[in-house]
Amino acid sequence: MVVDTLAAKAVDDRRRMDDHSPTGTDALLEVAVKTGLNLVFGLLHQNLSFERQLGYQPTGGSICNNVLQTALDIVMTFEPLSLADKRRLPPLAVTSLAEVTLFLRSIVSQQSCADTSGRRLAAELMLAVATQRGSLRYLLEWIEMALCAAVRRETDSFSEGFVEEEPQPRMITHATFVAVLSQMKKAMVCTFLMNWTDAFCGVL
Of 7, 119, 166, 171, which residue has the fewest beta carbons closer than 10 angstroms? Predict the structure, then answer.
């Protein structure tokens, strides 16, 4: 029930943003961004599928893993709550964030062709983005995603028979956990100082 509710909210956000029909340059920009995201996500999924079917491990690492690592490194350098205020984000940006979140969820899911490193990176990136958005809703979505990824269906256990079960990797690393907590603390301090300043100026 929780899974359906959170997933429905993400889809509703995307639909509400789609209701605002852009014109002119904004329309061209939306076409470029949306088609570009679909192309990149499709190529990454296809690459993961080929690597799994062929059992091929590139010497430089998986393309998908490299992309996720680069994105994670960039997001972790953002100022706290950089993506928090929706009023400062254009509708296209909010829609793109929703698309990115759905893609990351698909990478972490049990049906994904990604390896353990890829799933970990996707989970870490989704957590970093959720923290930057500054809403409890997105953190709950991440928790729900992590719980679903950690649970194995009974049908899978019976179908595998006596095959040795692959150990479940940690969802995120300790370094990422500490970095996210640091971002949250900085966000709390910034919010407190802003509220205190506004209250002080109001008294004056």
Answer: 166
Q: Taking Cα atoms as reference points, which of 145, 114, 116, 127 lies closest to residue 71?
A: 127
**Structure tokens given for 186:** 């900085």
The CA-based diameter of the chain, rounded to the nearest angstrom, is 74
State pLDDT tens for residues 8-31. Answer: 565 555 555 555 677 778 889 999
Is residue 112 within 8 Å of residue 48, measured between CB atoms?
Answer: yes
Tokens of 45: 């999924």
Residue 158 is predicted with a pLDDT of 46
Helix (H) or strand (E) holding 142: helix 136-150
Residue type for position 134: G
Residues whose CB falls within 8 Å of the CB of residue 33, separated by 6 or more in sequence, listed in order? 92, 96
Amino acid in the structure at residue 179: A
Predicted model pTM: 0.75
Question: Using alpha carbons only, what angle is made at residue 102 by residues 119 and 30, rounded to the nearest 5 degrees?
Answer: 130
